Each structure stands twice: as structure tokens, then as C-alpha cells.
Amino acid sequence: MRLPRLGVQGQLLVMLAILLSAVALLVALLMQRQAQMHSEVTEFSRTAMQQMIQERVRNRAQSRIVQLSEALTNPVYYFDLENIGDLANSAKREPDVEYVLVYDLEGRVLHDGSGEISTYGQLMQDPLAAKAVAAKDSIIQLTPRVLDVAAPIRVGDQQLGGVRIGYSLASARDTEARSIAELDRKVGEVASRNRLPIYILVGLMMLLAVASALAVQRRLVGPILRLSRYAQEIEAGHYDIDVQGSRRTDEVGELERAFARMSSSVRAHDSEIREIAFTDALTRLPNRRDFRERLDQRLQTQGEDDALALLFIDLDDFKRVNDTLGHETGDRVLVEVSSRIRKLVAQNDLRNAELSRFGGDEFVILVESREAGVRGVSSTAAKLAQSLVTELAKPIQIDESEHVFLGASIGITLFPSDAASAVTLIKNGDIAMYQAKTAGKHCYRFYHPSMEQVVERRVRMEKELRTAWERDELTMYYQPVFRMSDRQIVGAEALLRWQHPEYGVVAPSVFIAVAEETGLIEQLGPHVIRKACIDAMRWRAVAPKYTDLFVSVNLSVRQLRDAWLPEQVGEILKSTGMSPEGLHLELTETVVLDDAIDSRGLMRRLRDAGVKLWLDDFGTGFSGLSHLRRLPVDGVKIDRTFVSDILHDADDRALTRAIIGMAQSLGIVVIAEGIEEQGQYELLRETGCDLGQGYLLGKPMDQQSFLKLLR
């Protein structure tokens, strides 16, 4: 039997009945919850009070036993029973103290605080005695009736015996019981007072629900049903529907009239909206949404022997174009790149190829090989990817004198061997593209399931690195720097280390690279400089003969892009009390010569603040010795690759002598790093090198080890 259709009026009545039932149920649940909360509050308070009372007794007992053990040292040492008795009796008279026992190393009682010492010489036999006698430090033992605290009595490293105090917990239990009873009574009173307002509020809600339902039925339900029929017609594409006029002057009447105007407006703009929604405005390529819809359709209609390849393209170093030449130039570059990709796709005569700009500097190509199977589409995708890498590496002309050099990293994933859905296919392409970036950029990589583990670990490492400093997992190590002439310590280089609770020691080359890529280095950098300055101040305080010790800290590329770096360094120096000349900042040679960074202006501002600047890894970049004349640096560090072969390679010896001679003629300090053999040290010292560091002189060590070295 077919049930009659329930109209809006019937639905309204049903909704009202449901609403009233829900309110009644809500009241019942509310009352039940109130009773439950009463029980939970009482139980929570009892537990909290027990913990508080026990903690208070523990703290009191801990403090008193340490005080008494120290006071008993001389009397026990000289076996002064009278003085021992006075101290034990004084402690025994304190509130809640049930007993006091002073005992020797064998656990025999020397005094119990009484006048007659009835237990003198007796061996303590209670279950806690053995632990008390064997304790090397103060211990606390809790039983249902007594809290027993014991502490050894020592003279220097010699243990003479010990002392125990037993605190009765009876008064604490009484206090707890009275407090819980009073709390239970108060909570019950509050619950009783709150019931009446709840009942009144529920009644008002029911009346309001009934009144609202009647008003909605009269003023809104009828007009809405009529407008619903209009909307169904418009949804079906009948934009010219004849919407009847309304005499109402309120919003509902205006809405009915607006429906008529809307149908003609929607019809006029429908095609334009679809164009905007599915096309990238800059390159006129299909956008992400359009590509996703077409990809879903393609995957649903693919045959069993059909295979597809998705190429995920990301331009290398495109952000540098926007940052240095402006976003307008960046847009022109993107248009040129899209044009080149179009031409390559057309030249390769690909079957049913689809190209899309996915967003930013990302492009996606879906290709289908003319040969059946995964092997055929894989070969086609690899050929296209190599053509794209070669073509996009060619310079892009901006104007008559300006060219932009980019490149592309491409990830390739195959359907159906790598993924069965559009979402997974795109995700795998993105993962493969990231691996191409990691492999050095300007290349392509096919997706492999093992890549996901690498990406997941990197994402997890990035997440955990964000809070590693707050969790004290990041620590500072210091490698000492020595004066070559007399092998005297003059400073140290600050090195950041990560002790991960799961991975163990994470190599700096790994987590520093993650910090650089994600921008976390901008947060870690100031922490490192501040901690290094604080530790350096500590060196000077504990070792007066080393009052001029410096600390050197490496700066990253991202830190040097921060125009506020000099002010930030100045604030750190001021807050830590570190003298500016005691802080040496190390900049790599390639960074200093990067035109995208205003390194010279930044370096002068840092030097104006009094900070010393060192040029790190000198000789490994693209500069020559002539750059030393133009760069405002105070020192250069000869890279370890030259020092390691200085005894065997004549070219390295000649270059090292040239660096030292040129730098010293300009008044620049020369530091050699990576000194691991005595012969290297002797040769560098004879050549005139000023400072040196390496495993021969001193390995990286933590703060405590470095302080020990200074002492």
C-alpha cells in the first residue's frame, strides 16, 4: 500500500513533534548529566585533594629529613647520644610525627627520641628497614597508615648511618574526609538551585517553538514552495520561466521578482562563466578543475590494454624571477613556457594529449601512446620529458639585453600500474617531481612506491623540526679555533646538532637542508645566534684568561635575504651582553656573490654594528682572489678540500699560499679548517696561516665539554 505524500504542513507538524521530543530528551539528559557531573566533581576533588595532601606531607618530610640528617652529622660522628637524643626528641614532638629513629650502618637503633632509649641497639625489623639502611640518598616510602622518610648521615663520602621519621597520615585523612563532605554538600546545593531555571527555560523553549512554527508556516513555507518550483525550472535550463508577480513588499516578494531577472542574466552569462571556471586566465590553458574532470572521464573510459602517463612539471628557481624581476616579468615567462610546452606536445604527435596549467609554475600533461601497454606509454613519456627538460633549459628573452635561465623538474607516473584513481595519479606525479628536484633539478624521474616513504619521512621531519628547539632536541656543539703560532684557543665555531628520540643523531646536512627548503632556518637562525652568544659569555666568565674568546656562527641564504638581519643581530648582542667583536658571522662564498641578495650592503651594515664577517668555504665557489679586495670581510676560511691534500698536491699548496699571502696583504685573517694531520698543521703555520681548526686540534663538543677544555 502506497503511503500518502506528506505535505509541508504535515512535515512542519512532524518537525514540531520531533522538536518537542528532543527538548524533553535534552532535559532528561541534562539532569542525568548534572548528576553525573556531581559525582565526577566529587571524585575528581577527592583525588586532587589526596594528591595535594600527600604532596604537602612529602615535601615537608623531604625537607625535614634532609635538615635533620645534616644536623645529626657531628653528634653521630662523635657518638654524642645526648645531642642525638635532643635532636630526635625535638623532631618527634613535631605535629603528626609518629616516630624518629637514628641508626648506624648495620640498621641498629642509636636513639628513638625517648628519654630511656628503650630500643637502643635493637636491629630495625620492619619491611622498610632494609631499604632505609641501603639508601644512598633520601627516600620516601608510603604505607596506608604512615609516610616513612629516611636519609643517610654522611661526613664527606663516608656514611655514618641514617635517620628515619614516620609521619602519621591520620590527621591528613581526617582533613580530607571533612573537606570532601563539605564539597559534596556545596555541589548538591548548587545543583538544586540550578534545576528550577532549567525547567523554566525548557518551558519557554517549547512555547517559542510552537509560535515559531505557526509563523513560519504562514509567512515563509507557502512562498518558499512556490519559489522552489521556479528554481526547479531554472535548474532544468528553462531560464525564460514566467515568474508571477507578487504584491508583497518584503524580501520574499523581491525574491520572486528577482527570479525573473535572474533567468535572463544566467542565460547570458552561462557560457562566459564556464569559460572563466575552466580556463587559466594567463596562459589560456585548461586549469586544474577542468583537467581533473577530464582526467576522471578518461580513467573511467580506459580499456584494459590502454595506458596513460601523467607528466607533472615544475619550473626550477621560478620564484627568483618574481623576486628579482617582478611578477609582470614572471607572467611573461609563464606565457613563454606554456607556448614552448604546447609546441613540443604538438611536435611529438601524441595521441589524445591533454595539457593544463595546474597553478603557479606547475604544468601537467596527460599522454597516451600510440603503442599499446605500459611499456609504450612509458617510452613516449620519457622521450617527451627529456625534450621538455632540454627545451625549458634554453634562455628566455625578456628584452634586448635581459635573459632568464630556468629549467624544469618533471615527475612521471603511469596508469594503471602506479595508480587507479585521478587523485592518486596526481599525487604520485607530484612525489616523482619532488624526487627530480632532490636529484639536482633539470631532470625527470618515474614514480616508484619507495618515493612515498622518502616524502613522508621528509614531511614528518619538517613537522618535528618545527618544535625540536622547544623540546630541547637541538643542541649546540662547539669546535675550538686555535691560533696557529702558539696553539692557543681563541674561539669556537657553533655547530647545531639534532638528537632525535626515534632517528637518533640526524646529520646536519639532512635537517639543515629541510630547514632551508621550508624556511624554518629563519626561525632557527636567531635561536642559534642567541644561544651561541649566551654560551660565549659563559666561557669568558668561567675562564678569565680567555676573556677575548669569540664564537662564529654560519648564516644561511634565507637569513641573508632578511633586510632586518643587522637589527636582529644587534638586539641579540644587546640582550645577551655579548660584545660585537666577539661574534663572527660566516657567509659562504657563493652566497656573497649572488646578485639576488644585497650581500654587500647587508655586510656593511653588519660590520657597522661591530660584528666580524668571515668568508666560509673560500676557493670552492666561482670567485677569484681578486674578490677579496672588494668584499668587506674580516677573515677567510680555506676550505677543507684544499687542506686535506696540501701535503701531497702541489696545486693545493700553491693556491693555499696565494690565499694566505693575498689575505694578509689586505689585513684579512686566514683560517684553515679540516686540519687532521700534524704535517698539515706545521705546513700551514710555516706558511703564515693565522688560525686553524680540525680534529687534530679539537673535535666538536658540547658546552660542558668545552668549558672543561677551557678550565
Task: Please write out the topology.
Blueprint lengths: L7 H64 L1 H5 L3 H12 L4 E8 L4 E3 L17 H6 L4 E4 L3 E10 L2 E11 L1 H66 L15 H28 L9 H14 L6 E8 L2 H8 L1 H21 L3 E9 L2 E7 L5 H19 L3 E2 L5 E2 L3 E8 L6 H17 L5 E3 L3 H17 L7 E10 L4 E13 L3 E3 L1 H11 L2 H22 L7 E5 L2 H4 L4 H12 L6 E6 H4 L6 H10 L3 E7 L8 H4 L4 E4 L1 H5 L5 H16 L3 E5 L4 H10 L3 E3 L7 E2 H8 L1
Parallel strand pairs: 11-12, 14-16, 16-17, 17-18, 18-19, 19-20, 20-21
Antiparallel strand pairs: 1-2, 1-5, 3-4, 4-5, 6-8, 6-11, 7-8, 9-10, 13-14, 13-21, 13-22, 14-15
Helix pairs in contact: 1-5, 5-6, 8-9, 9-10, 12-13, 14-16, 14-23
Short descriptors:
711 residues; TIM Barrel; eight-stranded mixed β-barrel; 19% strand
Task: Give structural notes.
The protein has 711 residues and is an alpha/beta fold. It has three domains: 72-168, 2-Layer Sandwich (Beta-Lactamase); 288-448, Alpha-Beta Plaits; 462-710, Alpha-Beta Barrel (TIM Barrel). It is built from 23 helices and 22 strands. An eight-stranded mixed beta barrel has the order 13-14-16-17-18-19-20-21, surrounded by four helices. Strands 2-1-5-4-3 form a five-stranded antiparallel β-sheet. The chain has a five-stranded mixed β-sheet with strand order 7-8-6-11-12, sandwiched between helices. Helix 8 (318-325) runs antiparallel to helix 9 (327-347), helix 12 (450-466) crosses helix 13 and helix 14 (521-542) runs parallel beside helix 16. The chain is flat and about 115 Å long. The N and C termini lie far apart (98 Å).
Counted up, domains total 3
Q: Extract low-pLDDT stretches.
A: none
Oligomer: single chain
The CATH class assignment of the largest domain is: Alpha Beta
Give the CATH topology of the largest domain.
Answer: TIM Barrel
Mean of all residue-level pLDDT scores: 82
